[in-house]
Design brief:
The complex is a heterodimer of chains A (71) and B (625). By secondary structure, chain A is an all-alpha fold. Chain A is 87% helix and 0% strand. The chains are: A mainly alpha (71), B alpha+beta (625).
């Protein structure tokens, strides 16, 4: 039972930030696509902006890994 | 690095103004800044006035501006010729050119209108001819000399033809004959033969069914179809000949006059640029004054050029830069050899202020290291190195692809280095097949050392950024801000040491005294900066933790590479296995270029640069041809 709870906690730790990241990236991506239509020279900056919310899922991944390793 | 700028004042007699502007314009190293003089506190009598053109100059400017507009239209209308240039000096013949331009513009406009009309006519005739040519063979089946009336119609498709046939037979009680054929370009056309007395009834039926009757010029409507085709062919040939004649006339005019007009237009643009530049000039009763900026290294050359050209009448002086002007100084970035290609990344940011730092050298130093730490695979590094060499050799220097190749090459070298440290060659392929052992640690299995390593890099990077921030405030003579930043840096360092002491206890790292020191520093920070100070500290700690992505993205890359190897091995066939592993490694390599690039840049832009970089500088845009 304990193993199940640990696995569930790890899944939550990565799953919830993944959903949050996906939502944030969808909003930024849509706005970025609109911006690119008018200013194609901002491509690089928009790629960086889209990457910013990935912090959430990356930290979620680290927390999940730590839970599984029982740190 | 940010090029050092000088504040320049150029003074000379009013009559030498245009010549001086022309010389500065040609050199292309000086950026005028009329606001500089406006900032100087002078009494109303002392203040130089903005230059106002006299009546003759205004008349000349209007004339040039008008001629420029007309020449632009004329050049646009004339067909382009290749390779011809003119050495004409336009100024002495400007009046004659003005007259000629008027005549030529009127002639070209008239010819352009005529040509458009004839082309329209040719298009219509070609379409009619194609229809009637297709219908002509159908008339051979009809009885000759009879009182038949013929209609040509355009039909949408075979279904419409069938419907039409039934309808016409019904309306005319079978007293009409419909035949159809395809034109050369595949359109379906039909010929209806009927007697004269029911032709009006038939026309009504066609109109009600929205079937268009084929057009024919009015004067050819009464001709039999074979003669009609001949007449249309002759008329088409005549129209084509007229088009050709007009085109030849225009080409001849273009061949003779276009280079001259292009030369005159370029001269006029330069001249009008000079007039526009006069808006940045101030004058006294006898002199003109221009103030602006230029690179410090260019000053002696321009100074000696002005002295030589005007026998010392026009003087260039460097002036002291006031404290409040520092942020107004235009910024020009210039980076030597190794760092130059990294400008492709610093250009994604707004320009730094003059008193701040050029981000390029920092990106050049740290970006490849972070990239290598994330990718960290000897095999992928070597593949990227080959791609980088191809890019660099194939494209000319300073081309975007060449710069990308150079950046990729340096990053790939670091990926190879870290690949050796982690013992990775296409994931675990090196370890399994060639006995490659990590020189440092295996990040695929040892997560904690990798997290510690990533966070250590974060601490060093962020503390370096904060130190640069302290130095930046000191350079701007802001000792209070520098001191606050230094105290905050110290508090962060103590917190980090306390965390290290907590996880790795050591007699030198007693957690309690370290936390006590932070507790002493915190009220000082709150007193100096308000409640934002603890938030700023938390933000900085968050920035440091953000570096853990180095471990996370790197681990994803290792695991994907290991999956590729295992899937390849599971196929049991060497060819299929190589193919499967190759495709997956290719995909992983693509991700391995994209993800480390984006995240390394993000660590710079968001975490590192926010500690010391002051963005929002004004680009140096020298006045040039």
């Amino acid at each position: 039972m304990e193993k199940v709870l640990i696995a569930f906690a790890a899944a939550l730790a990565i799953g919830l930030p993944a959903i949050a990241t996906a939502w944030a990236q969808s909003r930024i991506g849509a706005a970025g696509a609109g911006t690119l239509a008018e200013k194609p020279e901002l491509t690089g900056a928009i790629i960086i902006l889209v990457a910013i919310p990935e912090t959430m899922v990356i930290l979620g991944f680290v927390v999940a890994a730590m839970i599984l390793l029982m740190i | 690095m940010i090029i050092r700028m000088s504040k320049i004042e150029i003074i000379g007699p009013k009559e030498k103004l245009l010549e001086t502007l022309d010389l500065i314009h040609n050199r292309g190293v000086f950026q005028p800044d009329p606001q500089l003089l406006e900032r100087i506190e002078l009494t109303e009598g002392q203040r130089p006035q903005a230059l106002v053109l006299d009546e003759d100059e205004l008349r000349e400017r209007t004339f040039f501006s008008d001629l420029h507009a007309r020449l632009s239209v004329l050049i646009e209308l004339l067909p382009k010729t290749t390779g011809q240039t003119s050495q004409l000096q336009p100024l002495p013949v400007m009046d004659a050119l003005n007259e000629l331009a008027n005549q030529h513009l009127a002639a070209v406009r008239e010819r352009t209108e005529q040509l458009a009309e004839h082309r329209q006519e040719v298009e219509t005739l070609q379409r009619d001819l194609s229809f009637w040519k297709a219908l002509e063979p159908l008339t051979h089946d009809l009885p000759t000399g009879s009182n038949l009336e013929l209609f040509g119609i355009a039909i949408r498709d075979a279904q419409q033809l069938e419907v039409l046939e039934n309808l016409l037979h019904e309306r005319t009680l079978g007293r009409c004959h419909v035949s159809s054929t395809l034109t050369a370009d595949g359109a379906l056309v039909g010929l209806i033969a009927t007697t004269g007395e029911i032709s009006s009834q038939l026309r009504e039926a066609l109109t009600s069914e929205h079937v268009p009757e084929l057009s024919v010029p009015e004067d050819l409507a009464n001709l039999p179809i074979p003669q009609r085709v001949t007449a249309l062919s002759e008329r088409l040939a005549t129209s084509l000949a007229r088009c050709r004649t007009i085109e030849l006339q225009t080409q001849e005019m273009s061949h003779r006059w276009l280079p001259i007009y292009q030369r005159a237009l370029a001269w006029l643009e330069e001249r009008l640029d000079l007039y526009r530049a006069t808006a940045t000039v101030f004058t006294t009763q006898l002199c003109f004054i221009i103030q602006g900026w230029m690179a410090k290294t260019e000053v002696p050359e321009l100074k000696s050029l002005l002295t030589q050209a005007f026998d010392g009448c026009v003087v260039l002086e460097q002036q002291a830069i006031f404290e409040e002007e520092i942020d107004q100084i235009p910024v020009k970035l210039c980076n030597p050899g190794y760092f130059a290609p990294f400008e492709i990344f610093s250009r994604l940011l707004p320009l730094p202020k003059y008193s701040s730092y050029d981000p390029t050298p920092f990106i050049g130093l740290f970006f490849p290291v972070l990239f290598g730490m994330i990718l960290g695979d000897l095999g992928y590094g070597l593949v990227l190195l080959v791609i980088a060499v191809v890019f660099t050799k194939r494209f000319p220097a300073h081309h975007l692809a060449s710069d990308l190749g150079k950046v990729l090459g340096v990053a790939a070298l670091y990926a190879c280095l870290f690949g050796l440290l982690y013992g990775e060659l296409f994931g675990d392929l090196g370890k399994v097949n060639f006995g490659l052992e990590p020189l440092w640690f295996d990040r695929g299995t040892e997560l904690v050392p990798m997290i510690v390593f990533s966070l250590t890099v974060g601490v060093v990077h962020i503390l370096l950024g904060s130190l640069l921030g302290v130095w930046s405030h000191l350079r701007r003579h802001q000792p209070r801000e520098a001191l606050i930043k230094l105290v905050m840096l110290l508090a962060i360092l103590l917190l980090v040491l306390a965390a290290v002491g907590w996880f790795y206890p050591h007699p030198w790292l007693a957690t309690r005294p370290l936390l006590l020191s932070v507790a002493i520093l915190l009220p000082i920070l709150i007193a100096a900066e308000g409640l934002l100070a603890p938030l700023e500290m938390l933000k900085t700690l968050g920035n440091i933790i953000s570096y853990v992505r180095i471990m996370a993205i790197g681990l994803c890359s290792v695991l994907l590479a290991m999956v590729a190897n295992q899937l390849g091995g599971m196929t049991g066939d060497i060819l299929v296995g190589t193919l499967v592993a190759g495709v997956l490694h290719g995909f992983n390599l693509l991700l391995g270029v994209f993800a480390p690039t984006v995240h390394s840049l993000r660590l710079h832009y968001v975490e590192f640069f926010s500690k010391f970089l002051d963005l929002g500088g004004r680009r140096f845009e020298p006045w040039h041809k």
